[in-house]
Design brief:
plasmid; about 0% strand
Length: about 230
């Protein structure tokens, strides 16, 4: 097994990573780790695709969409008070340049300075059970507060992160089919399958005679009934 996979498995199963903190990305990555080496000899092309995905996944933020939004908000707060205050001639100087165009620009950012906004974000991230719920609820809040920063982050996350995860799931499904091997059709799936018989499948001579005599007896009985 490659050094890369061993290193990544060691990291992903570290005691410093509680089970409850595992993200969807880490789950998909772990699934691909489990089948990675098994497809090497069976499907070289698939092996290469999985290898590439795993390498790219190292550079993808492992956090959820909530972590991505919090990281973006921390970024715009860094070095900016995000509210008008003494010491600035122009109130907009207290804001991140990316906030330009927001109706709260130069006044006070409700997402990072308002009690309602900060507490609502905290509640959403603590109570939402899925990334879909986080996206939906944070989108509603961002629209209500006219925050294009959060909306842009949510859109970017869905476009890049979600598509990357989708590719990972597809690779995992393909790998599982390779590992499992072809499945023989059974039940309804077997309909329309033509059976092929070789000479070895034919009845032995004594059995053929028995069948023929039985058929003759049945036909004879039918003729007697007709008379």
């Amino acid at each position: 097994m490659s050094t890369y996979i061993n290193r990544q498995r060691k990291q992903s199963t570290s005691a410093d990573e509680p089970e409850t903190d595992r993200t969807e990305l880490s789950e998909v990555r772990q699934r691909l780790f489990n089948v990675y080496e098994y497809v090497r000899d069976e499907d070289a092309e698939l092996y290469t695709e999985i290898d590439q995905w795993l390498r790219e996944s190292v550079d993808v933020p492992a956090g959820s969409v909530g972590e991505a939004v919090k990281s973006r908000l921390r970024e715009i707060k860094r070095g900016n008070k995000m509210r008008d205050h003494r010491g600035v001639d122009d109130p907009t100087d207290a804001f991140h340049d990316d906030c330009e165009g927001c109706p709260n620009y130069g006044v006070a950012c409700p997402m990072v300075k308002g009690y309602r906004g900060t507490q609502t974000i905290k509640r959403i991230l603590e109570t939402a059970r899925t990334d879909e719920q986080v996206v939906e609820q944070l989108s509603d809040l961002a629209i209500e507060e006219d925050c294009h920063i959060v909306l842009d982050e949510l859109n970017e996350y869905e476009d890049s992160h979600a598509n990357f995860l989708k590719t990972g799931y597809e690779l995992n499904a393909r790998a599982n089919r390779v590992v499992s091997g072809p499945v023989s059709p059974t039940g309804a799936d077997a309909e329309g399958v033509e059976a092929e018989f070789s000479e070895s499948d034919s009845l032995p001579p004594d059995a053929e005679e028995t069948v023929e005599s039985t058929i003759e007896a049945v036909l004879s009985d039918e003729e007697d009934e007709d008379e």
